[in-house]
Design brief:
rod-shaped; 46% strand; RNA Polymerase Alpha Subunit, Chain A, domain 2; five-stranded mixed β-sheet
Length: 485
């Protein structure tokens, strides 16, 4: 034995054996079986694989609870397949179809790519809770933050969704009654012009003003235009007229397509305005009935009028002449003086007026007034012009000017009986006195201010066609008797 061990060849062989044993000891893994060392199959663990619910009837139910939302998964397969495996390739589902409102424990199902097998899944079930939901339409509001530039105000918002200001809100049925508002928020700090097409997120607020974060909103955002303008006031539109219709024609009716317009300006100015006289029609350019487009002009102090144009329907008919009678009123008589009308008898004047038949038929006693201004007139006998106050589209006939005069005696009640009442003011020889300028400041036939026009003309809202746009001068004053109406 000693000889064999001392042989060089034997020593070499022994050295090789010892080396192999040492290698085997170093590379030996007691946790792996011999089969594992030689196989190409391996395992892979996923610690937080997401759970996806399926089968939810979202028209009637909402999933408000899913526990846990992730699970641990261990899969097995060839190393090549495991290296190519992605997280999305492992699908874990919980099927909630057919479940009613309430809490349920549901088993998990899975889908794996070909060549991959499930080794372990923990846990194998999840807890879900379903609630009954409801969908309702709500009007969309706008919450403004900040203050516009001085003297400016915000108007009504215009939504880009074809003017539709309603949105769908879906919530658990028991929470729907807690909805306070559905709004977007816009900043108007320092704004002096409209905020155009601003896109904003829609938020549902409860009755305490807190956002309801879990609400489902369709659409989620909206584009809105918010007007920022000076203060405005909706005022009745008054149509004015200039010029005269051809002889023999009268205005029977005036009908604007809108009755009110938006007038923008300083608040102090708006507070003084009761109507807007921004539209004028030149009757000399009107040839017959029809619809005419009239521009609305911004008058002094008014910054803007909307709309800027309006269509006005005019009805033109043949004129008629009527005879009417009215009592003459005496105004402005000085203190201590008395007046007696000697002509016409009884102080009642009969005269002819011209206008459309329907306008004349609607005339009432208070629509036509006759008066004489005696302010500053001294005692004496005078023949004076009578002022006629007529509705729009009604004017004196040509012969009425000669008729509308009054003769009256003015006496001083403080003078003793038998004394000359006129004194030095009476012309020598007892002739008829000529009225002083104060008595002739307004020629016969001058009409009063026209009424506002927001619709068809009638006896209480007409004026002579020859009247001024805003003053309502009658045909007797304009020399167009018979042409207006």
């Amino acid at each position: 034995m000693d000889k064999w061990l001392s042989h060089p060849t034997a020593l070499k062989v022994l050295s090789v054996i010892i080396a192999l044993l040492l290698w085997a000891v170093v590379h030996f893994d007691p946790e792996k079986t011999p089969a594992t060392v030689t196989s190409n199959v391996d395992t892979k663990a996923y610690e937080a694989q997401s759970v996806v619910p399926i089968g939810l009837d979202d028209e009637f139910y909402a999933l408000v609870k899913l526990e846990p939302t992730v699970v641990r998964v261990v899969v097995e397969g060839k190393r090549a397949n495991l290296l190519a495996l992605k997280d999305d390739d492992i699908v874990l589902n919980v099927d909630v179809s057919g479940l009613e409102a309430g809490e349920h424990t549901v088993p998990l199902s899975y889908k794996l790519p070909k060549g991959i097998e499930l080794v372990e899944m923990s846990p194998t079930t999840v807890t879900v809770e379903l609630v009954e939901i409801q969908t309702k339409l709500f009007d969309l509001g706008v919450i403004t933050k900040g203050t516009p530039a001085k003297g400016y105000i915000t108007g009504t918002p215009i939504f880009a969704n074809e003017g539709n200001s309603q949105v769908e809100v879906t919530l658990p049925k028991e929470e729907m009654s807690h909805v306070g508002s559905v709004s977007i928020t816009l900043s108007v700090e320092g704004a002096e012009k409209p905020i155009e097409e601003k896109k904003a997120k829609i938020v549902v607020y409860d009755t305490e003003g807190k956002p309801m974060e879990h609400s489902v909103i369709k659409p989620e955002t909206v584009a809105v235009t918010l007007p920022v303008t000076p203060p405005f006031k909706m005022l009745p539109l008054q149509i004015g007229f200039t010029g005269s219709l051809p002889e023999g024609l009268s205005v029977s009716a005036v009908k604007p397509e809108i009755e009110k317009v938006a007038v923008y300006g300083e608040q102090k100015l708006l507070d003084t305005m009761e109507s807007y006289k921004g539209a004028t029609i030149d009757l000399s350019k009107i040839k017959g009935s029809g619809t005419y487009q009239v521009k609305l002009e911004a008058s002094d102090g008014v910054k803007l009028v909307e709309p800027t144009e309006v269509n006005v329907e005019l009805t033109i008919v043949s004129s008629e002449t009527r005879t009417i009678s009215r009592q003459i009123e005496l105004n402005g008589l000085g203190e201590g003086l008395s007046a007696n009308i000697t002509s016409p008898e009884g102080g009642t004047a009969s005269f002819e007026v011209v206008g459309a038949p329907n306008v004349l038929d609607a005339l009432e006693t208070g629509d036509v007034l006759l008066s004489v201004d005696l302010s500053g007139v001294a005692p004496g006998t005078y023949t004076m012009n009578v002022q006629a106050s007529l509705p729009r589209f009604v004017q004196l006939a040509g012969s009425a000017e000669a008729v509308l005069k009054v003769t009256l005696d003015i006496t001083d009640n403080s003078v003793s009986t038998g004394a000359d009442p006129a004194g030095a003011d009476t012309p020598e020889g007892g002739g008829e006195a000529t009225a002083p300028p104060a008595g002739e400041t307004a020629p016969a036939g001058e009409s009063a201010e026209p009424n506002e026009s927001g619709g068809e003309a009638d006896a209480g809202s007409g004026a002579g066609a020859g009247a001024g746009a805003e003053t309502g001068d009658s045909a007797a004053n304009s020399g167009e008797a018979g042409n207006g109406g």
